[in-house]
């Protein structure tokens, strides 16, 4: 069975939600293909990064069934993905071009169910050492409710290009 | 532009990797549609759950570019998703049917880059209180290298059916 | 050997530092005895609590050799004690009189060596649920350098009097 | 008022508990003076270190009112002190003589009230990198109940002698 045939079989049986989520994913692959997104993951979750200030990094993702857990709220792991990406972005933003940072440790407090139109995370560097960067991140929904709060330790490494 | 037209445009330009990753995602949507998977997320990541013992819950996901970060290793957030799902599974497995558990707090140590054929997480309940369950999870790759270690606090709530 | 004899033997051989630290401890026991301090620990560490605002709780302790680790900087566990006490204070301050809160989980980032004249911790409630309170605490030295940052989960219980 | 006079005034009014706790502290200062203990803190808490195996470090402290919180159970910060000391000991035990390790991050789950005759902590290295060591520690009471579980990140530095 070719991928085109699989898609046709899926779409023939798809509920409206399944069709919408699938189209979101297709759009994400196209965004990745067209280099508007760096990874498949950021593509399919429709992540939008911004830098509200030179010390703050931010990413926003729409809340759709694609990132739901079985209770139909945002999967804690997807909130973690958003926090980790945003906090990593803040760490990198604070570094010169020849360095990057990888997550060494991440602690997350989940405070409210991830419901609403979108999740938006803001991250700032709390402490910048030679080797370790401590970053804080807060994830809000569109009603500005604090959904989750994280702190993490990032380890600085040379960027291999 | 219909979703079918978008897909055709994408596939016409797709690299072999893009085709493979896209087919993985299509297979995931079909698995979700056919109720072999509970969520889109577990579908597209091809998560396979198992219960190696009555005290252990396990989930395995193949490592493919779908879950890569920009450095082409597993995104820390996807490792978090795997850990959170597996640890939540262990928490629920320890509860009677009318109760469930939501993640209250999650702490993750990332120890090695997520590379290899698959990630496999094993989680066990460390302490079971009336309201709070403490769970430990370890994520290994196919070479049995410890990629990440997590502990988390889960909050027990009634299951609304 | 009576305690008085032990003390005499100790003081006969004591270095100036040992004498100073010992006197600090004696003062702490007296403060506890006179109910100026609630615990031996707060007494001997000369902890001073304050409430800078209705949402903030603060405790300050002088940095003396009593709380040093073998490297002659503040023992990370004593910074943890300060953070835990202050964060617990903030949690309790947010609760009605018939409830109290116990630490369920505490995550600390140590950022700078604990050196200076004193450590001062400020804690605020980040999220207040029915059963769980999330609190943030920051420990600074007298030069306002951030020594450590913590977040914690506190579990609400009835206060048994 | 000399320290001797202060001590006399304190002892004249002291309850049996206050006398016992005070004598514990005096014994601790003597142990420190006689170099049986490395720090005041380990002295007054009567910490006893051991190495049950080459991969495990252990410290035991008696539970006395000295380390109680206002609820008359072990202060969470003192459990943290025990965990941090033991985990740091395990990290150092894994290093060559010219290196040492400082706590970078510590996450603790408090599971049961700290009651009993003593607390005993066992710590093992989970992962040993060039710069970062991840350590796990478990604190039990004399009934082998798990009181608290911690994981931490230690940063390797040269030992200045």
TrEMBL record, chains A, B, C, D:
Pfam families: 4HBT (PF03061). It is an enzyme of class 3 (hydrolase). The lineage of its organism: Bacteria, Bacillati, Bacillota, Bacilli, Bacillales. It catalyses: a medium-chain fatty acyl-CoA + H2O = a medium-chain fatty acid + CoA + H(+); a fatty acyl-CoA + H2O = a fatty acid + CoA + H(+); a long-chain fatty acyl-CoA + H2O = a long-chain fatty acid + CoA + H(+). Belongs to the YigI thioesterase family. This is Medium/long-chain acyl-CoA thioesterase YigI. Residues 73-147 form the Thioesterase domain. Keywords: Hydrolase. Its EC number is 3.1.2.20. One of its GO terms (molecular function) is fatty acyl-CoA hydrolase activity. The keyword Hydrolase applies.
